[in-house]
Structures are given as C-alpha cells and as structure tokens.
Amino acid sequence: MADSKITPRAEDYSQWYLDVLREAELAENSPVRGSMVIRPHGYAIWEGIQRGLDRRFKETGHQNAYFPMFIPMSFIAKEAEHVEGFSPELAVVTQGGGKKLEEPLVVRPTSETIIGHTFSKWIQSYRDLPLLINQWANVVRWEMRTRPFLRTMEFLWQEGHTAHATEEEAMEETLQMLHAYEDMAVNDAAIPVIPGEKSENERFAGALKTFTIEAMMGNAWALQSGTSHYLGQNFSKAFDIQYLDENNKQQYVYTTSWGVSTRFVGAIIMAHGDDQGLRLPPKVAPIQAVVVPIWRKEKERKEVEPVAQKVYEQLRAAGIRVKLDDRDHLTPGFKYNDWEMRGVPLRIEVGPRDVKKNCVVIAQRHLPGKAGKVFDISIDGLVGHVNEFFDKVHKGLYDQALAFREENTHEGIEDYDTFKQMAEDKGGFLKVHWAGSNEDEEQVKQDLKFTVRCFPQDAQDGPKGKCFYTGKETNRVAIFARAY
Amino acid sequence: MADSKITPRAEDYSQWYLDVLREAELAENSPVRGSMVIRPHGYAIWEGIQRGLDRRFKETGHQNAYFPMFIPMSFIAKEAEHVEGFSPELAVVTQGGGKKLEEPLVVRPTSETIIGHTFSKWIQSYRDLPLLINQWANVVRWEMRTRPFLRTMEFLWQEGHTAHATEEEAMEETLQMLHAYEDMAVNDAAIPVIPGEKSENERFAGALKTFTIEAMMGNAWALQSGTSHYLGQNFSKAFDIQYLDENNKQQYVYTTSWGVSTRFVGAIIMAHGDDQGLRLPPKVAPIQAVVVPIWRKEKERKEVEPVAQKVYEQLRAAGIRVKLDDRDHLTPGFKYNDWEMRGVPLRIEVGPRDVKKNCVVIAQRHLPGKAGKVFDISIDGLVGHVNEFFDKVHKGLYDQALAFREENTHEGIEDYDTFKQMAEDKGGFLKVHWAGSNEDEEQVKQDLKFTVRCFPQDAQDGPKGKCFYTGKETNRVAIFARAY
Q: Other C-beta atoms within 10 Å of B429: how many?
C-alpha cells in the first residue's frame, strides 16, 4: 500500500526522488520559489550529518564562530574571480527599517569576503597562526532550476575558513578537510566517495585548487558532495591579511575554505533509497530502530505490549534512537511499510510467540523481505545484538552502493565515438585518460552533458594511456559523468 | 596587568561591557552597522546554551525543522498586530539574480507567518495535534541602537512554534516552555530569573499573552532573557490552520511561540562578570578548567610538565572541557589574568611542591584571590574533586547573583514621589502594587525610563496593597526596572 505512492526508480528517477521527499516527509517546496521547508525527519538527518562533521572539526582543532549574513556589496568586488563567479547569483537587500540603504547589502552566497575582512584584524603575528574557524550558517544563491536539498536558493551548510603561514600548511589543511569529508561519507553515511581535484572549469570562484568528494546516485549520476578549496593568497591580498613573521617581516597568509551543505541529505536519499523509499545508515538515522508490537486479540495485546515497552526502554536507556509504534488504529503491515519508507534501519517485531521465547524478530531495512529477517533474537543482551545489526546495516548499505558504483564505472575508452556511445547507452562514471583543454572539456559538456567530476587522487600515478578526445598519451585520469 | 584593560563596573558599566567583549574575545562589531561577529569564545558560550535548550526541547517532544528565511511581503500583512509591530524593522530583498523581484521578500524578523502557512498544510486531523516544532535560525530586525549580543540587527535564536487542539493545552505549552527557560537559566547559566507575564504594552505583536523570564544584570538593570507567547487563534485564523475534530467538525488550532536568542550570552556576561572580566558557570563554559604548570628552572620544568600533562589527560578523558596552558613565553601570572578574564571556572596549578605531594592547587573563579584557592588536592580521583568544584562554582555564582538581586529589589513603595526617588537614587527592581492603565505605564516610562518588566507568577495571589501611581487597592504585583 504505502509503496504504491512511490514511482519506481526505473520508471522515472526524478519523480521517485520527489515522491520519497513527500512520503517520508523530508522536505517540501515553500511559497518562495526555489526555497524549501526542511521537515523534521529531513532536518534530523541533517543533524546527524552535523554531529559527525562538528566532532571531526573540533578534533582537528577548529573552532566555531559566526559572521554576519549581510555583506557590503563592495566586499564582493574585491576579489576579481569571486565577484565574476557570484554576481549573477546574488540576493540584494536595498531597504532596511523603511528606508533605502546607501550601500546595498548582499545576502552571503559564501563568506570568504566578510571572513577575510575579519581575519585581517585578528591576525597580527605568526603566533596567531594557524587560525582555524568554522561557521554553521544559511547562504543564498539565486538559482534558476532548483530541487529540494540538491540545489535550493537558500541552503544550510558549514563553511570552514582557515589561514596559515605557509603554502604547504594550507595545502595540508585543504586535503585534511577533504579527507574528513570522505571519512564522514564512508563511516557515517555509508556512501563510497571518490576524492579528487576538480578541473579548472569547475573550480570555486577565487580558488587555486578545488578538491571534491564525488558520490554516485541511484541513477548512476554523480553528486558533488563536499568541496575543499586551496585559495593561496588570493583573498589575503584582496583583504590585506598579513602577519609579522619570526624575522619581523610582513607576510600574506595562505587561506583555505571548505563546505558541506544540506545537499548531503540528498546524497543519502539518492545513494541508498530503493523503490520502497528511504534507507538510512544507522549513524545518521533520526530513528535507528522501531519496535512494533504484534497482536490480534486483546489477550495477546496484554502479553505483547509490556514486553514491547520493556524492549523500547532497554534500547532507549542505551542511547539508541528508538521509537515504539503503539498506534492502535493501524495494522502491523501498514506500520512496516510506513517505517520502511522512512528508512528506519531496523524493525524489531514483538509477537505472542516471541514473548513466550523471550525473543524478538529483527528485520533489516537494507535487505528486502525475508532475506532481512532474523528470528529468535534473545531480549537478554538485546542492546549488544542491536548494535551488531547496526554495523551490518551500515556495511550492507556501503557494500551495495560500492558494488553499484563499480558496475556503473566504465574504463578503457580510447576514442570519442566509444565515449559517446557509452555516455548514451550506459551512463555512469566514465573513467578515462584526459589531456584535453578547458575548451575541449566544455565541448564534451555541450555534446553530452558529461563533465569532469574530478581527477581521482588515487589514480594519478598510473601508467600512461590514450586520451579519448585528443588522442594524446597522458597519465592524468578523469571521471566524467552526468551530475546534479 | 590584564585587568587594567577593563574599565571598573562602578566607573562606567557600558564601557566595562564593551571592554569585556573585546578582551575576552567574545564579539565585535562588523562592517555592517548593527551586526556583529561572534568570536569563537562567545560562540562556544552560545553552543553551551543551545545544548541545554535543545535537550530540554527534545525531552518534551519537540522536533527541529527549518523554514525559509525569505518571506513574501504579503504574509507579514496577514495578521494585523503582527504587521504593525514588525513593519518598521524589516530588511527587504528587492533584487535577486540580477533582476528586480515582482514581490519583495522580507528577511524573517520571526517566523510565525511562514510557519503558520506551512502548519495549515501539515495539519488536517486531530491526530496531527499537538504539532511541536522548533527552529534554530538567524533573524533580522532593523534596530537603531545596537549593542553586541543585547540588541543586534541580525541575531541567532531558537523559535518554538506549536499548534494545539484546545486553549488549555496551548496555555500549558506556553507555560511549560517558560519554565524550561527558567530551568536552563537557573541550572545551566546560574542566573536567578523571575518568570511572569508581560503587560499589554510589552506583549509580542500578535500574542494574547506574553510571558518572560527577567534577570538582573550587574548594574541592577533588567534583561528580558526569554519569552513565551500564547497566540490563541490569531495566527490560525490569519493562516487558516484548521483540523477535523473527533466529531468531524473543522476547528481552528491554538498556537504558541517562544524564543531565546544570543542575547542570553549577554545575560551571562552581565549577570556574573566582575572587574577582572568574565565569570562563567561550568555548564556553559567553553573551557571549564585550565591547567597551568608552574616552574622557574629547567629542572622544575621537567618535573612539572609531565604531571600537568597527565592531569590534563585525566580530565579530558572524563569529558571535561579542559585546556593545558603550556605556552612557554608567558608567565604564570599573565596566564592567571588571561584565563580569569575569559571566565574559566577553575584553574588548576601544578608546581614543583605540588608534584612532590602528588597534588594540585585549585583556584575558583567566583571567589577572588586567596579566598578561592584550595591547596593539596590529590591527583588521585581528581575528576571527582573537579566535578565537586564545578558544583561549588555554579552554586556560588547563583547565590551571588541572587543576593545581588535581593539587595537591589525594593518593596513597600506606595506613592509616586517615593517611586521616583527610589528609581533615581537606588535603581534596581521596584516591586510594587500596580493598578494603572496602559497610558499610566507609558507615563512612568516617559518620566523615569522604568517599565513593567513583568507581573511575577509567584506574587499574584498575595494580600492587596496600594498602587503607587493610582492609589487604588490591588493584588496585582509588578516589577518595574530600567531594562536593556
């Protein structure tokens, strides 16, 4: 019943995504075009992502702070590439307190400028470095084509901004945070990602190098899921961020910035979801386990309900995010579908026969139907069993996503005709040697909508091969794909 | 040395506040007039407040969600008092993506309207009630006179919004959240507060009743530190939030809203700070304890530093937010002043004589100089001792704040001349019987800048007394004070 509300992925993947957003109550469009309401179940997934990131930031010495959302228009103009990149996307406040403003204020699309301005006051000496700051905030980019979580006018994110004495330290930081993102994706969200550098065409406006983690979604498209930028001295020169070094000389700092946004909620939905709805990895799941009592007669109810309650309390006391579904106007079957759609990793069934054996049945969301059910799990020591099942679900989701990505990654393409045919017939990730120019890359995009997602970090030192577009020999390897 | 950078409170309280913000690195003005940068040490206090509130919200069944920051101008106009109250304070976006917008967008000053609009879609049946939502967000109010944390154009807050089937339930919720705020103030921030109802003049624009927690600052002024509003059916009628009741009849819901903002950071600074700087209660302190190794000669250093490190690790492993100050270019005396200024509740000194005794010295921030020092505390079981000291600091700060409030609360005022004299000579909280009209209240404000802070909940059922302004007998008791 519930699953019939969701369009099968194979039929229409975009509609499937919108159906899941609606039926799992994750997000909806708001009356302001391009912006969304994040509903509690969707927001709690974001809170799960935040927990994992914030912990990793603090463990690596970063501190949170908060900078104003309104930025003087003149700030945006100070870094040439930055203004060129962001100008078309700005929302502008021209009235405040009933009056026309003398200088219009930009609603931040990102905060390099206001933070650069502030860093120039905080940093005086080498003793003030490195300066490691993160901000949790909303930002606004005026987008034409939007889709909840994936691309919205307003979105939530964290943006890290750091300043360093040397180029080496700044590059180390850029890569450290890229790998913090990879670690969160793999170990919290169960999503395999490919860390790599972006091509010049796809760089952040104002960066010398942009790195990304790229994930494969359920339709074999790519999703850029987090980025980390090495900004060199572009912003320190634009905002005069200098320090006195140990030899009493003024030097410009080297800066980085890096961000993950609510887009990552979209990554989780699309990397794991199936035709029954959402499938959530336990670490970010708002509800990790649901307890469903099963009874028909009043006599059974009296046996079952106290045990279901006890099971619930036992798990809750252990810090597990558990829900007891004791709604009495709904059948167990309806509840199963309902919680499957919402992606709850484990369902714990308590029926009359289970109660007699002091046991429960556990159903794992990542394995459909009977394959996912395990019977006769003792209520004694249930917390330990449940935690083991969480590990299984996490690993199961990760392995499935990795297998899907491997099936849909194609190599050995040495000419453009083959590339075109693969792009059109198979899609997925095309892992190729690439020696083309920026213009060549743009041409492939025009022809096929395939873009360079990244140059994977672990594939740049291999043997040379033939570039499918230019025919040149190169050892630079790129992933091309359709992307959100 | 460090304390000389801070103007004594008695000399100029406003300057003292600004000095503490600067020297303890809490916040600073930003290039956009009226908005501030919250620096890491200030932001971490806000994180402490957030932790305590978010836990209390979730324990009482509320869920977080997120609603768009931009609100169509037409939404604000739907509730008559709301538009009247907020219109003068709005920031308006008139351009987006390089074009003039057809309908200007308001940057939310508060979210009753957009959330009311959304609730009307989420609520269909009595089964959807109560709906208990909270949002962590930034909001903008175009203020003329601003001061960091206390009143800024943009500020951070949480805003709770709930919908209920009956008036009784909505009133219960309004008071439940008022008392959640009181509980956070008392038990996390060590600030005694007076919960009570606001006068009609001071009500939230669109509310039927507004409740507040009022705290006394170090200059005996009041600070409204959190508010909870009973909105009746004002917003449900404006936004058509109806449900089908158990008898199949359409009914309007009753709504509430309630908020605490970054202003509360200002409350903590001003309720506890002294002439040496900040004093922080342990539950919200970013750094709860600092370990300072004390040595002169290299030989002592080799004895002391490993023990300081061990002490640090022991506390850290126990989940205490501890810092080891091993900067070797600064004297212990400088460090003492530095951490005192930043309000760290406990300083743990480790010197050569302590090491020999396997002991440390603990200095408590809330008791000045020698009075706060305790010697010969064994390193074995130090975590337990430190936790006991945290309780002592918390209680000490609370008791001092309460004693100060009691000293500065004056009763028994039965005529306006006495009131005037008390207001001018003594200040503080004037606790009086009050039977005046809205206009009378306004007149007192014009004369003396004293306003009704609240009608304290625990003082409304006492014996009648004479209203100092009208001479009428009444049992309504009000607190008048100067307020931020």
A: 25
